[in-house]
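Fold sample X.
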Amino acid sequence: MKISSKTLVVLSIMFCYVISLCHGSFRPFTKTVVTLTNNISPPTVLTLNCTSKSDVLTGNVPPGQKYLWKFIANWWLTTKFTCRFSWANQVKWFDVYTADRDQGNCFECNWSIMADRLCSSGYLDQANNRCYQY
C-alpha cells in the first residue's frame, strides 16, 4: 500500500491538531527558554550543571546574573532538565523543566535561585508561578 504525499501531509496536520486539543496550548516545534537567575543571599557564585537525556549544560553564574538556554520539547512529553546547584558548602537538585508540568504552559520558564528555595515565573497559568523547597 502506497501513501501519497498529499495524504501524508493531511495526516500530519490532523495529528498536530489532535495533539494540540489534548495538550491545551501545546505548540509543536516552539522553542522553550529556561532562565536561571542567581539570587542567593549572601551573594555568591552559583555553579550549575543541568542535564537532559541529550544535553549537559554547565556554568558559573555571578550574583544577580542569569544563565539561559533554548530547546524544543519532544512530542512524547518526556523532556526533562534536572539541575544540580552548588555554592559555598551547599548542593541542591531540582527539575527545572519537566514536560508533564511545563509543556504547553511555560514557553519562557524563569527561575529565581535562592539559598532555601527557587521560585518560578513565566507560566501562562499564573497558578503555576510558585516557590519550591529543594
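Fold sample Y, listed below.
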Amino acid sequence: MILSALLSIIGLGVLVYVLFSLAVYALPFFVAMTVGLYFYGTETGLIVAILVGLFAGVFTLLIGQVVFAKVQSVPIRLAIGALYAAPASVAGFSAIRGLSEIGGASESWTLVFAIIGGVIVAGTAWVRIASLAGPPGADDVLHPKAHQSAPFANDR
C-alpha cells in the first residue's frame, strides 16, 4: 500500500515535470500535427506526411526563437510570447483538469486547479521561449566588432 502511494506520487511528479518541460513546444507540435494530418489526408503517403509535419514543427519553433531574439520591439515580443504561451495554457489547463478529476475533486475545485495550472504552464512556456531566444543584445557580445563600424564608436 505504501509502495503504491509512493509510486503514484513519483509518477505524478514525472508527468508534471514533462508537462512543464514540453510546454513551450505546444505551438510547434500543433502546427506539425496539423500540417502532417493535412498532407496525410491528401494521400501523399505516411512518410511524406511525417517528414513535412516534422519540418513544419521545427520551422515554427526556430522562426519563433529567431524573431523573438532579433526583434527589439516590446509589443512584438509580447505578441510572440503570447502566441507560444496560449496553446501551452490550454494544454496545462486540460492536463491539470484531467489529473484533478482523477483525484476525485469536486467540479468547482477541479476548475480552480485547472485555471491555476493553465496560468502556471503558460508562464513557464513564456519564460522558456524567452530563455531559448537568449537575452536581448546577445549578438553584440558574440560580435564585438559590430559596434566599431559606427562612427565615433571608440570615443568615450
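Sample Y note: DSSP finds six helices and no strands in the chain.
Also: Residues 74-102 form the longest helix (29 residues).
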